[in-house]
Amino acid sequence: MQNEKKVPIWAKIPNWVWVLISVACAGALWFFANSAWPAVFASPIEVWDAAVTRAVSGTLWEHTWASLSRVLTGFGIAFVTSIPVAFLMAWYDPFRHIVEPWIQFIRNIPPLAYVFLIIAALGIGNVSKITVIFIAAFLVQVVTIYQGVKGVDTTLIKAARVLGAKESDIFFKVIIPASTPFILVAARLGLSTSLTTLMASEIVGGDRGLGMMIQQASGYYQMDVVLLGIIMLGIIGIAFEKIVRFLERRFTGWQETVQQ
Amino acid sequence: MAGNSAAVKVKIDHVVKKFQTRKGEMTALNGVDLDIHENEFITVVGPSGCGKSTLLNIIGGLEKPTDGQVLVDGKPVEGPSPERGIVFQQYALFPWLTVIKNVMFGLKLQGKSKEEAEEIAHKYLKMVELEDFANHYPKELSGGMKQRVAIARAYATNPQVLLMDEPFGALDAQTRTQLQQELIETWEKERKTCFFITHDVEEAIILGNRCVIMSARPGRVKDIIDIDIPYPRDQATKMSPRFLELKNEIWSQVYQEYLSVRK
Question: Is B64 on the interface with A (CB under 8 A)?
Fold first, then answer.
């Protein structure tokens, strides 16, 4: 930036070329891993073949959709409910005093630990899987949004009051917009937690889902399918990330410290 | 100048403010009495922690006095109101609103139509010479520009009294001088009653009709100095013998208070 003369050569390479280079390097590493441990790392070609067969037969999409719909439902319910709960905690102290210890306690328990409790209560079907995802995503999001609401600059609230804002104006015109960056951070964390928890929820049974697909395949030592499942989860994760990034640029571009 | 003949706009009537701290009760203001006259520009100086900001918040209605009261046009202050605009040191612009929407914020709350609010906002953005930045976000502005937006926003709701809490304290010397000059010119035009806190003695003299010196905590009015320097004032005024005399006088008083804090 300050030294205009010495621009390194790689500074001129556009971003999309870097992505290609990065992917190519990953591919090379993958081929290397395949040649070193063929029994563990199926080659990219094998995985591609596995993907094509399953895509054509449709089972890949069935598994993917089963997982995706679980994640989105669990996350969606958690997102919608965590916002009012977080605001209630920030505004109403007795509620916070009672609820916050619960949240802090449960939040640190790995979901896998209480999966069995939930299955015992709700059965092995979709409902229990979504519930596990919901709990994990809800806790992460409540904590994040609550901290955001608590952190709203009090000078802004004062400034609004002086300009004639009533309590409801302060809520809708100051607190809510000031908290949107945190709500979006919460969404990002919530989505990645949902994806992590999905694995815990699918580990215990059922017949559809990427977690199940991976587990069944590993039972038959079909490492190409295992890798395919892992890659699908990675793609879903990246897609979530991109969507939230887009929303952040769209809704919180006004922030002083926006990542470019 | 604005003289004692003008009507009393703000009457600060034996205001006491005590805070509960872990170490017990702390008295921030210990019986402050002050009459601010219509159209007067009052500046307030005093050592840190003397309760200047607390006093401003009480006039603004953001804090309640423990004892005593503040009357504006004879009516006691009950809470914050657009009648008493505040400019904060930290600008306090809403970062999610564009410059013009920030200025329109209070106008919309007053129930003005979008068109009317826009018109008024443009007028005041013109006053602070930021019309070209109407659709920018605060993050795109420098500190000085942000504070000019905040000043425009405070003016836009047409308050009876303008309260400013070290508004230029966070700015560099050059920007600060420029904004002082703009504020003098604006005041000469609009003659709004102003209550301006600063820790900069020069600033207090160049801007004010009267300068209130506050004692160290617990804060009281230690002295009030008439700034008998005629308008128009500009930066050259800072070289005039009378200015230097006043600066010396006020500074030595503030310094005494500062020393008493250190002890």
Answer: no
- Structural domains of chain B, with CATH: 8-83+159-262 (3.40.50.300), 93-158 (no CATH)
Select the residue from B94, B147, B149, B153 to test the A interface by mutation, using most A Cβ atoms within 10 A: B94
Shortest Cα–Cα distance, A155 to chain B (Å)? 6
pLDDT digits (tens, 9 = 90+) for A49-63: 999 999 999 999 999
Cα dihedral sign, A62-A66-A69-A75: negative
Instruction: Kindly list the domain boundaries of chain A, sorted by start residue.
Output: 62-252
Query: What pLDDT sits at residue B2?
Result: 45
- Put simply, the answer to whether B86 touches A160 (Cβ < 8 Å) is no
- Which of B27, B29, B34, B31 is CA-nearest to residue B12? B34
* Candidates A158, A256, A258; nearest CB to B62: A158
Give the closest-approach CA distance of A180 to chain B in angstroms: 10
Number of neighbouring beta carbons within 10 Å of residue A213: 26
What letter does residue B169 receive in the DSSP assignment? Answer: T
Q: How many CB pairs under 8 A join A and B?
A: 65
Q: Using an 8 Å Cβ cutoff, are A178 and A147 in contact?
A: no
Tell me which residue in A162, A252, A256 faces B86 most closely, judged by beta carbons. Answer: A162
Cα separation, A147 vs B52, whole angstroms = 31
Q: How far apart are CA B184 and CA A44, in angstroms?
A: 73
Per-residue pLDDT for chain B (263 aa), expressed as one digit of tens each? 444 567 889 999 999 999 988 888 888 999 899 999 999 999 999 888 788 999 999 999 999 999 999 999 999 999 999 899 999 988 999 999 999 999 999 999 999 999 999 999 999 999 888 999 999 999 999 988 999 999 999 999 999 999 999 999 888 888 889 889 989 988 888 889 999 999 899 999 999 999 999 998 888 899 999 999 998 888 889 899 999 999 999 999 988 888 887 76
Give the Cα separation of B10 and B195 in Å (integer): 10
What is the band of A188 on the pLDDT scale with cuts at 50, 70, 90?
very high
Global pTM?
0.80
Fold of A62-252: MetI-like fold (1.10.3720)
Rounded CA gap, A196 and A219, in Å? 21
And the tokens for A54? 């399953």
